[in-house]
Amino acid sequence: MADPNVHRSSTFAPVNIAVIKYWGKRDTALNLPTNSSLSVTLSQDDLRTHTTASCSPKFTKDELVLNDEDQDISGARTQACLRELRGLRKEVEAKDGSVPKLSGMALKIVSENNFPTAAGLASSAAGFAALVRAIADLYTLPSSPAELSRIARQGSGSACRSLFGGYVAWKMGTEKDGSDSAAYEVAPASHWPDMRALILVASAEKKDVSSTVGMQATVKTSELFNHRAEHIVPARMTAMEECIKDRDFATFADLTMKDSNNFHATCLDTSPPVFYMNDTSRAAVRVCEAINTRAGKAICAYTFDAGPNAVVYYIAENEGQVAGILKSILGGKMGWNSLQGRAVQAAEMPKGMEIAAEMLERGVSRIILTAVGDGPRRSEEHLV
Length: 384
Ligand code: DP6
What we know:
By secondary structure, the protein is of the alpha+beta class. The chain contains ten helices and 16 strands. It folds into two domains: 7-189, Ribosomal Protein S5, domain 2 (2-Layer Sandwich); 195-371, GHMP kinase, C-terminal domain (Alpha-Beta Plaits), CATH 3.30.70.890. The protein has helices at 76-95, 123-138, 145-155, 211-221, 223-245, 249-268, 279-295, 319-330, 339-343, 354-363, and strands spanning 7-14, 16-20, 25-27, 32-33, 37-41, 48-56, 63-66, 69-71, 106-113, 167-170, 183-187, 195-201, 300-303, 310-315, 366-371, 377-379. The strands form four sheets. The protein has a six-stranded mixed sheet. A four-stranded antiparallel sheet has the order 2-5-10-11. Strand 13 (300-303) and strand 14 (310-315) form a beta hairpin. Helix 7 packs across helix 10 (354-363). It starts with 6 loop residues before the first strand and ends in a 5-residue tail after the last strand.
């Protein structure tokens, strides 16, 4: 039986993959970005972090266990999240003297990812979103998802967008204290539910240069980066919000691919240069471009984060022409994970992409087929 002295709350939180990328901080302590960004939240059926936050008068120190391994939580970012959440709990306790004094108890947080950690699959985003949401629920905080996103942002920037489902923007804000730098929902998943995402895992290794380090090197040394932050991204944010509202996939795809390429161009413009995409990534670009050329319009959109894995967005009605072609190239591989993946019919490859197809076949180890999904979900399944 569960120990009555242990208070606990559990949540599932999703991964999000940006279509307008966050890259660069204007304040490293508060984790404030140099530009706004926008992402699609992916389905938790395929990719999620499950976290239980617990506290008890018997616990002696704060602890975080991820995938059965103890994590160092002394870092300023995790500490900032814990401090803010405890502060809010103290306000709850001050208002109502009858509630237990959880803010004074040590926390034990246990998390599990159902995907490779730090493989460029936005694990820190789901991780911090789950941590903040689970502790907020444990503390019965009245905070809105937007308020919690401001806290999660301090753990990892992209995490603020995982507090919402569907299509989510992170407004960079202008205040020095970061009070207006938070995420908001552009549209729920139900607004455009047929958005699909196919992840081609080109490496499940830990990344070479972390996003935190890479982006600050870019801020310091790339001139191209200033142009991106000041001119390119602001116009694209407006255009992206509009095409999501209109469910205009061709424009969504065009902006997504351009923004990924622009972000990786600033990485190349960093000195010394930072490389996240590799030959397999470039083969994925070639294959997507060939699919779009044959269709006569953009029916798929590639995007790459700080790693070589490709995320390919498309609309369900084009499954045959996008996932089908990728299945004919990669059909022998493990990991057409879901029922949906197994149901995809292999389709004929466009001409002239044999070399790219061969390279992709060699470099991709796993395929995850998923879709747009909802925000964090409370769970009664506890890990503590
Ligand atoms: C390329 O959110 O991991 O995925 O704030 O330093 O933790 P920190 O960085 P992080 O950076 C993500 C960068 C990106 C683009 C994006 O998700 O918008």
